[in-house]
Design goal:
Aminopeptidase, seven-stranded mixed beta sheet, 7 strands, 2 domains, 175 residues, single chain
Length: 175
């Protein structure tokens, strides 16, 4: 038998994960989306909530896919009047901490006018999400009391100038 000259006990580098692609989220994706949603949130969106947001012409809904179009994450941004709202971003638990959420957020923001204000709500206890949003220029502008089903407040974050969305300066309590 031929000896390859390689020591079989030498650790080989892990193979690179399949390339990540972004595409429009479709209704056919909803079974996988709902599975990721239920594994990601204690109060998940219903299928109807996704259908409602995806049916709006003012919505950006993206899927992050790997390999043979395997959906591993999604993002939904909706425009309300003069502001965009990051409604929902989730990554399958087994694909987290690999830049997938960053790619989705960046992909959505590239589709939005550069100076358009964008807002979101996030649990103050979700420090990793707050840090991620900060890398995209989001800043805290106060809280919505009792926003979540368990009574937890929501931190309101904005990217850009909330005044451009008609938010009165006196209603903002920035941190």
């Amino acid at each position: 038998m031929h000896n390859s000259g390689l020591n079989e006990t030498v650790e080989r580098p892990a193979p690179d994960p399949p390339a990540l692609g972004l595409r429009q989220l479709t209704y056919a994706d909803l079974p996988v989306v709902i599975s990721i949603e239920r594994r990601s949130f204690t109060t998940p969106w219903s299928p109807g909530m996704f259908v409602l947001e995806m049916s709006k012409s003012s919505t950006i809904s993206l899927a992050a896919v790997q390999g043979d179009d395997r959906l591993i994450a999604y993002a939904v941004f909706s425009r309300y009047d003069a502001a965009w709202h990051m409604m929902n971003v989730a990554v399958a638990p087994e694909h987290r901490r690999r830049g997938v959420a960053s790619a989705l957020i960046n992909g959505a923001l590239e589709r939005i006018e550069p100076d358009a204000p964008v807002t979101l709500e996030v649990r103050p206890s979700n420090k990793s999400a707050i840090s991620l949003y900060g890398t995209f220029g989001f800043r805290s502008f106060g809280y919505r009391k009792g926003y979540y089903a368990n009574g937890e407040d929501a931190m309101i974050m904005w990217r850009g100038d909330p005044a451009l969305a008609g938010v009165p300066a006196e209603s903002l309590s920035g941190n």
